[in-house]
Each structure stands twice: as C-alpha cells, then as structure tokens.
Amino acid sequence: MDCRxxxxxxAVLATVIVALPGVAAGPAVWTDSSNSSLLVAExxxxxxxxxxxxxxxxxxxxxxxLANWTLTDLEGTLAFxxxxxxxxxxxxxxxxxSSLYRRDTLESADFRYAGGDAPAMVARGGxxxxxxxxxxxxxxxxxxxxxDAFIYGDSDYAGPGWGGPPAKVLAxxxxxxxxxxxxxxxxxxxxxxxxxxxxxxxxxxAHPLTVFEFDGVAQGIISPDSASDALSGIIDSAEDxxxxxxxxxxxTTLGGRLLEAVHRGxxxxxxxxxxxxxxxxxxxxSILRGLSDSGASVRLLLDNSSLGVKARYRYDxxxxxxxxxxxVVVSSENWVRNGFPPNGATGNRGWSVRMDNRELxxxxxGVFLEDWNPARMDSVDLTRSSISPVSDDGEAxxxxxxxxxxQPFTGHFRVTPVIGPDNSLHPDAVIGLIKSARxxxxxxxxxxxxxxxxxxNLFLEEAVNAARRGVDVRILLxxxxxxxxxxxTMDNDDTVAYVNEVAAREGIPITAxxxxxxxxxxxxxxxxxxxxxxxxVLVSSINWNLNSVTENRxxxxxxxxxxxxxxxxxxxxxxxxxxxxxxxxxxxxxxAVQQGIEVYFSAASSRDDVGIERYSWDIxxxxxxxxxxxxxxxxxxxxxxxxxVLRVEDAWGNAAQDCxxxxxxRTNEPPVPGGPPMPWVLAPxxxxxxVSIVLAIAIRRRKR
Length: 704
Fold this sequence. Notes:
This protein is of the alpha+beta class and about 700 residues long.
C-alpha cells in the first residue's frame, strides 16, 4: 500500500510555529535529507471522543517501506500492513477511528486501530490506547530499534529516543505538534521539540502565507469618520455574492443593507461567532434570524459538546467580507454601531481597507468557505442552534466631527493576507513587517499585553528591537477602564510603563502612551494596526495578546503602497495628539495709523482649551512671520493697505489664524478717528496679557 497523501504540513509551505524562548520554530517544507528515518510529527491523545491519532512523517528524500515498522505505547503494539510505505516528504495518519477523523478533519486517515473503514493496523499484542494524563508513543523499525519517541505527562519512560522530562500535558481537544526549525523538524529527543506557543485543535486550517501583487484600486476607511457610508456602499455594490465572517453584528443599518442584498438575489453567507465573550446580544440574534428567514445562509462557530466536537478556534474574531469574488474588505471593527456609526455620531477608532482584486478575493473566499463549510461539525446552522441571547449593551451617544474622508487609491499594491492562527507568527507576517521598519514604526492597538504568559510578547519585543536599531517607534493604546485596571498586571497601562522604562533605561527612541479618547470624541481606540515607514500598513482584527495570536480565527492584510500607508499614517498622527481642539485666534480690530509710528499688536483675546504655546505675526500676509509673541510692535515705513496675520498654536500643533487690516497714512496727514490706541496705552495692556499667559502656561505645566 503506497501512502502518498500530501501532508497538511506540506500545504503550509511557509507556516511557522513559534516556540517558547530558546526553542526553534516550525513547520515549513520537509526536505531534511540529513534525517533518513521517520519522525513522530503530531499526536492527538487528549481527545474529546475516541478519535485520537498519530501522524508519522518521512522527512527524507526517498520513499520508506513500512512493513514490520511498529508503533507502541508500551501497553500495546501496532504494526503497519506489509505493503505500506510513505513517500518522501509525506505523512501517514494512524487514527483510532478513521470515520471520526474524517468527520473532524474532512480528510481520510491512512490506517486505523479501532473503528472506521481505513486499512487496519496489525495488532502485535496488548491494547494501544493513549492515556490523557501521560503515556508513550514509540516508533520502532523492523529490527526493533527505537527510531523516535514522544513522551508526555506522568510517564516515567527513560530509554532510547527521549531524554529529560516528558512534554507537558495539553488540555482536552488540543493536538501536540513537533516544532520546525528553518524547514527541518526539530529533533533533540526532548520536550523542547514539542513546547510551542501556537495552540492546535483538530480540524484547523493550514493556510500558507501568500503574497499578491497587482495594479488596482484600494480604499482606506477610518471609523467613525463616515465609515458606515463607505461600508454600506460596498454592500450595495454586490451583484452575486457576499461572504461575511464576523465576531459581533448588531448594527441594524448594515443588517438592513444585507437584507436588501438578499432580496435582490445576492447569495449572502455569514459565519458569526456563536459565543462572544459576553454572549450574543439580542440585537445580533434578531439581525441574523431576519437574514436567515429571508434566504441568507447563516452559520455559527460553536462547540458541539453532544458530539464531542470542539470549535476549531477559540473565537471567530475576524471581521472581513468578500464581495462578488472581486472585493475584499478587512476591518478592525465589528459590524456594530460603535464600529460603523452613522454620520455625525461618535464611535470607535478603527481602520478598514477595501481591496479590489479577483485573485486576492478568490483566496479570501477560500478561507471563508473552509470555515463556513456545513460539513464542519462546529459550523452550526443558525436555525439548529440554541442561543440564549443577552440583553443589548446599548451604543454610545454623542456627536463627532469628521476628520478623515474615505479615500480611494489607485496604483501598485503588494498584499499579504495574515490568517490567524495559521500564519500569525510567520516570520514574514507581522513579525517580518515590524522587522522591516527603517525610519519609523507606528502601532495603534486596542490591547497589548506585556507578555504572553511564560513567553515574551513577540510582537512587542520586536518593536523594542526596532527602536534599538534606531527606528522611531510610537505605540498608542486604548485607555478604557478595563484596559487599565490597577488589579491587572498585563494590560495596557502596564505595557506603557514597561516600554517607557526600557526607553529611559536604554536611551532608545520608543514611546508608548494611552490614547485620549475623550479629546477625540471617541468611544475607545479599538484599532489593531501598524504603519511602517509610511510605506506599509497592516489592517487587521489581531489584538496583541496570546489568545488572539495563537487560538483565534483572525484576518488582516499587510498592504505595501505608499499613498495608502500615508493615509493611515496621518490618521495615527492625529490620534497621537492628546489635544485636537484648535485655539481661537483674535488679532484685534482693523485700524489706521500714520507711517513711521510704532504700532503694537496684541493677541490678548486669543484663547485655547489648554494653552497657547506660540504667537506669530505675518506682516503683509506673504506667509513669512516677522514677529513673535502675544504682543508685538512694528513700524510701517510707507503708506498703504497692510494685511497682518496672527497665527496661534498650542503644544500639539493645533493652530488658528486671524487677520487685521492696517491702513497706513502719510506722516503729515491727520490721524484717522478710530485708529489704534497710543503705544503708552497698549504697552501696559500687552505686559499684563503676557504675564497672564506666562502664568497660565506655568500652571498648566505644573498640573501636567
């Protein structure tokens, strides 16, 4: 029997599982000709039902016959059938129950040792059954030599193929994977070969990191600035199909747009998270039921405990849509009112990007359809689910002044989809993006944990490393109360303190701060974006915590295009400000004066919500500022009409201007009634104004 089915590993030609500190990472392409023997590559032992399995991989460049090779847990021994073999770079799957394996993976096992219809392994005595708390998986060649071993839990095995303590026990439903290092399976015969950050669950996808290059059109969308109009227009443009993968969906406006699409014959398919952290709100359940009743195909990602099925992903936290297999929209925002509020309403700060390209759209449609597939046991039809909704949280009220128009960009694009957890930790994905920074790195995130459990936060540490090589790094984090809880030690305020302490200690150009949502009239900073050198941008659903990176279904797009990246870079610069309210400039009333007489200009009536830092006077309105200060003097040498511009700026660069017209008459002409106050009157006023401003600035700085 020739077992040539291509490994799930092989499909992931560039996926890497990042190990704990000091441990290499994997898997990639299996071409290790230095290892001419088989390896135990994957073990599912703590199964929810009787569907455990073992994967044996041939990393060599030649086929290996499996006759008389055996697999044992030291309580039972299984032998391969005499005609079995495994081709170079491929695998064989030995499942306890091949029917359940097919149910959970939609793939066929090569052999079985209990139920199912796959060819049976040959029993050589005892019973092979993996213990949840600890056991051995030992592979022997026809001569009885131990070729490889996997030891875990409370096993006390001490023999060939393994050294040191056993691998730690994984939680129920988790799959043990061997780590890859540079395309070669790590094989030190120790637990370090198996301890990695990435969490695996049976049936998960294995999407490779794929790059698309094309000339086309993109659209940058910033919430809450007219984002609802932009997304509604994209939905309204659908003619054939809309595929939506979403974590939360409570916005009735967007729900109504989808309903209209269904009514005009568009094929609407939705995969929604069936159990968000706080539960599914009644508003979302009503929207989804209305769409389902009208003909949309709505499915939920859910555990199915009655069938022993664990959802492939902890949460479907993605927020993307594919329209007509020609347009992809990826967002940091859920389809809720705070994410896409109507014009003039407040909401979250978030980013979305629309890309028009058929190849990219086909790829993302494939990701969606694999997740949504009704054959998947955790993809549950809404009409067959039993959801107990929670009461609606309600949405924030308040006004909002638009700052950023939704802008289209035409040009050349290089786009890399980041699909979590498949390739979130790939060295050329988020980590590679951060490493590519040469001048400046801007990070705006809803949540960044200081570390990932026992491991450093790999994204955060890479940002620190960027600063160490001279890159100007700024990290802006949300300041909502639940992200700055004093009882927590790993949330945003702790991350800010950690980053700034490193910056002060090492003298490197990195700054972290909490965003001032109140001054921006925002509900919160819900974004999950990165800009590098004003040339590359990541728009995504990926929070910088361990679960998001290793367990959730997440989706992002890395887009290389200077114009698009600069659009988001400008938005970040605006958000970085703690004060976005411009001052009020008052240059005084128009007046007339004789030539050669010293005239005093006063900005005493100008004001700002925090304080004015700079006063500049442009004599003549030519853009050249000749004078500075809240009070300034000038002598006009010749008669004529003069346009004098006052510019006032606060500490964050917010500015305002006002102008005054000065009519200058000849020296021998009589003064014009209503002219400026005499210098001996203006001077005391100017001095008092200056003293007041200086005192106000000093008090404000002391408060800061």
